[in-house]
Amino acid sequence: MSVSPQLRKQLLDLIPSLRGFAVSLAGDTERGDDLVQETLVKAWANFGSFTEGTNLRAWLFTILRNEFYSQMRKRGREVEDVDGIHAAKLAVAPSQQSQVDLTHLRKALNEIPADQREALILVAASGFSYEEAADICGCAVGTIKSRVNRARTRLGQIMQVDDEHAAFGPDEVSEAVVGANFATR
Q1: Which stretches make up the RNA polymerase sigma factor 70 region 4 type domain (predicted)?
Q2: By C-alpha distance, which of 131, 172, 173 is closest to 148?
Q3: Is residue 84 part of a domain?
């Protein structure tokens, strides 16, 4: 199988977008990276079925999405962190407020239904049109628009954003809590 240099470049250029989508779906950087790797392996093995000149981005995102759902079905139930060992590792105060905001966003994203999260990530974060996102998810454009709208509304509620121009970053309470945590270590 021969892959053109242009197609290879397109594939490489799409890796950061694939990674962002994968991490958002998986809720974890390591699992997201594994998901991207598996997606690239499957894509490379199946390049013979890809028609050059069609939408490579949508094709790759569809493979990634399908792989994610396949892994979720295989995984079944996740084991709880009863003794808190894993949670204790995650309880490290970030060095920058933007990291706190990003963590808050990731947690909020994990609280919204998977179909809404997926639609929001495809449209708002990955830059797909509603039509492209509908093709990837295998549903109607109106369904994607509805999911994105519900996801945005729910995220605003979870993150307690009262208006679209709300500032993120440290407030007095956050600074006091973070300062107290560092003082006790």
Answers
A1: 105-155
A2: 131
A3: no
Question: Which are the contacts of 76, defined by CB distance < 8 A and separation ≥ 6?
Answer: none
Residue 134 and residue 67 share a domain: no
Q: What confidence tens digit (pLDDT) does each residue in 71-116 have?
A: 887 776 555 666 777 666 654 444 566 777 778 888 888 999 999 9
d(C-alpha 172, C-alpha 139), whole Å: 45
**Cβ(58)–Cβ(136) under 8 Å?**
yes
Amino acid at 64: L
**Residues 104 and 142 grouped into a single domain:** yes
Q: Whole-prediction pTM value? A: 0.50
Q: What token pair was written down for 100? A: 């706190």
Listed residues 75, 105, 131: the one ending a domain: 75
Alpha carbons within 13 A on the beta-carbon side of 137 = 26
Crossing angle of helices 141-158/130-137, nearest 10°? 100
Q: What is the CA radius of gyration of the chain?
A: 19
Scan for tokens 């996102």, then name that residue. Answer: 133
DSSP category for residue 123:
I
